[in-house]
Amino acid sequence: MVIISIAKFLLLICAVAILLLAPQASGVGKRLAGTVTPAAVLVVLFAFSLSLFWTVAPQAEALGSLAKYSKLIVIILMMALIRDRREAIYALAAFLLAQAFLLVSSWLLFAHLPVPWATSNMALTQNAVFSSYLDQGIISAVSAAICWHLRELFPTRFGRQVAIILAVVALLNVFFVLIGRSGHVVAIALLSIAIMWELPKRYRAAVVLLPFLLALGLFFSSSKVRERLTLVETEVQSYSPQAATITSSGVRLVFWQTAIQIIAQHPLAGAGIGSWSSEYNRIRRETNPAHIDIDGNGNPHQEYLLWGVQLGIPGIFLLCALMFSMLIDSRKMEKHCARAIQSTLLALAVACLFNASLYDAQIGDFFCVSLGLLLAFGLTKNSRPAHATTSPEPAT
Predict the structure, then answer these.
(1) Could you tell me the residue ranges of all domains in the chain?
(2) How many whole angstroms separate alpha carbon 116 and alpha carbon 255?
C-alpha cells in the first residue's frame, strides 16, 4: 500500500509539472478532445465532494472516503500524460510484465516453492501473493482478457503465442488455483464475451447460454469452483436475519438489505460520502441495542449500493454513467483495444455486484490503472506491427 500511494503521488506531481511547465508542448487538450471519460470522472468527484455538505459521517471518515475515490483521477492522468503509441506500448508492457510476475508467483506458491516477496497473509494458504485471493482472482481474469485481445500487438516473432499462453495460464490460475468466487464469475463473464466475439455474428446470441455452460463445465472439472459454488448455496440456505451471520454470503445479505433500507430513507441525495458505516450502525442499533459498531470507512461489499447509500438513487446512475462514458470512448478505437477496454469494463461491472471494487484499495487501483492505460493506448495514433493479421476497425 505504501508503494502504491507513493507511486500515485509521484504520478500526480509529474502531471502537475507537465501541465504547468509545458501545457502547449504536452498536447493534453488535443489528446482528450472528443472524449467523455475525463468529464465523467470530474462530475463523479464533484458529486462526492458536494455531498460533504450533508453527509452524516464524521468529517475524518467522509474525507477518507473522498480520498479513496480520488484514485479515479489516475484514469485522466494516464490519458493525458501518455503522448503516443510508443509510450503507450512501453506502459502496457510494464503493466503486463508485472501481471506475469504476479501470475508466476502464484503458481510458485501453488507448487509449494519459496516466494520470499509474497507479503499476503493468504500466501501460504490460498496462493495469493500481495493482496487477497478475491482481488487476485479478478486481477488475473482481467489480465488474461487484455493479453488475449491485444495478442496481435505483442512484439517478436512469437509474441502472439506468448500472449495466448499467458491468457490461458492466467485463467487456469483463476479456476484451479485461487478460490475467489468473484474471480470465478468475472473470468466466466470475460471468457463468454471473448468466445462471442470470435463467433460469426449470426451465432452471437449464444452468449446468453455460454456463462451457464462454462459454469457447468467448471463445476465438474474444477474442485475449487465446485467447492465455492456449493459453499454459496450452503451459506444462503443457512442465512437468517435474526442469527449472528458470520459467513461471507450471510454478511453480504445483511449488508445489502441494510443498504437498501438506507437508500429508501435517503433516495434523492443519499446520506453523504463516507456515510455507510454510520448509517449501518444506526439501523442495526435500532433493532439490536447490543450491536457492536463496525469500523468507519467500510462498505456493503457492493459498489452500486454503496453509491446509492452515499448519493441516493442518482448515485447508482452516476456509477453506471461513469462506466458508460468509457464504453462510448472505446467504441471510437481500434477493435483490439476497444475489446480490451470493454472486457475490463465488464469485469468491473460484474465485480461491483459482489464487492466495492472501485472504493477498495488495491483492486480499485488496479482497475483505474488498467482502464487508464487502455484508454490512453486507444487514443494514440495507430501504428500496428507488420505481423498483425487483422485490420483495425471499430468494435461494437
Answers:
(1) 31-81+246-383, 84-237
(2) 37
